[in-house]
Amino acid sequence: xxxxxLVEPEIPQNCGNIARTCAATRSRLHLVRPLGxxxxxxxxxxxxxxxxxxxxxxxYDGLEEFLSLHAGDDLWLATTKAPRAYHEAEYKDGCWLVxxxxxxxxxxxxxxxxxxxxxxxxxxxxxRSLNLANSxxxxxxxxLRQQGFPDLAGTGSMLR
Length: 160
Fold this sequence. Notes:
Number of domains: 1
CATH superfamily: SPOUT methyltransferase, trefoil knot domain
CATH topology: Alpha/beta knot
Helix content: 25-40%
Shape: globular
């Protein structure tokens, strides 16, 4: 099990793609307000997100509320300012992968508080970052790979 946390996401298409990744991987999605889009049932239906019912979603009123409930959990913060690459971390069952908003990333105080739990995706130096949905997919699948892809189809050997 993986928990995906989006802190103040701004772009609805990214959230939709991340929700699809969560549905496909049985990961939980946690959204920290403010959100840059509407996630009401009406808005979701209008957007044609036919997999939305497969996603376990929790919404928090702000980062303070999220931290008051989960500060002691196995949090891993994705940031381009991390001391180590994502594949060097050990993601346990029930881990929390935390991502910041598209335009600013995670707040500095949060990154400093969890500095030893910050991870980055290796990329060329002059590239700012990957798209948020792609970053979530990379880390989510690494965490699930380390856990043996629990309860997911197609995880057996392709060689027969």
